[in-house]
Specification:
This protein is α/β, with parallel strands linked by helices and 267 residues long. It contains ten helices and nine strands.
């Protein structure tokens, strides 16, 4: 039984690949995007760059020609750059913000008219625990995810009347190739004031990621969200300690929480 048409960005690896395959095995028609053509027996992979609106238009047109509709958009494509906020180059900032935030906004802009016409649809935006708290040496990554959070709250209010559901998923640390693919700021590594602190912090971050949850747990949660008639706006998918850190963020004074982050990440 076909359950619906799902479009997920960044489906060539990590969260995207695991989720796309899981949903396909559950009976959904799944279209995955990648900047390069990638073959996958379970997924209809299409070449698409979320930072290039014309690329998105071509890809969406292809799906509509084949299926006549789209039921779920999962904005998963993203990347990370580690380093000092002060020393981030304009190129690094643009790459981080354009990929994680503008890529998501570009996708929504193209799909929303389809959902409005259908008077139905789910948009699932993959944020992060780093979209709830500013992580040291991950500043612009956190900024991109904070932007997704604010955008999604506003969008949910604007489109609810059209039968469109907007959901935020906030993963904690997961064991994926995101760790190996993280770009590292050369200027930070070469700066005598930052390099030791940065390397200590990065070691902790990478250790937690490498020992983090498996992507399948996120895929299962997304399946449940898609099936739900009235999903919650926000889902945190993380281990107990990270869920606890979100609670602490809500209840302790701001300066105290920053000190907790500094101590934990050895800044």
């Amino acid at each position: 039984m076909i359950k619906g048409v799902v479009l997920i960005t960044g489906a060539s690896s990590g969260f995207g690949q695991t989720t796309a395959n899981y949903l396909a095995n559950k009976g959904y028609i799944v279209y995955g995007t990648s900047r390069k053509v990638v073959a996958d027996s379970n997924i209809n992979m299409i070449k698409m760059d979320v930072c290039q609106p014309e690329s998105i238009t071509v890809g969406i047109k292809h799906i509509l020609e084949k299926e006549g509709r789209i039921d779920v958009l999962i904005n998963n494509a993203g990347m990370g750059i580690g380093g000092s906020i002060e020393l981030a180059t304009s190129e690094e900032i643009s790459l981080q913000m354009n990929t994680n935030f503008m890529g998501m906004a570009n996708m929504c802009k193209e799909v929303l008219p389809i959902f409005r016409k259908q008077r139905s649809g789910k948009i699932i935006n993959i944020s992060s625990i780093g979209g709830i708290m500013g992580l040291p040496y991950q500043g612009f990554y956190s900024a991109s995810k904070f932007a997704i959070e604010g955008y999604s709250e506003a969008l949910a209010a604007e489109v609810k009347g059209f039968g469109i559901k907007v959901v935020l998923v906030e993963p904690g640390d997961f064991s994926t190739n995101f760790t190996a693919n993280r770009k590292k700021s050369i200027l930070t590594l070469e700066n005598e004031d930052y390099t030791i602190s940065y390397q200590k912090s990065l070691k902790i971050i990478e250790n937690e990621e490498n020992n983090g949850l498996k992507p399948i747990s996120l895929a299962k949660r997304i399946d449940k969200i898609i099936k739900s008639k009235n999903p919650r706006f926000r889902y945190i998918v993380a281990n107990f300690e990270q869920k606890l850190s979100v609670l602490l963020k809500r209840i302790v004074p701001g300066n105290m929480f920053i000190d907790i982050l500094r101590s934990y990440y050895k800044v």
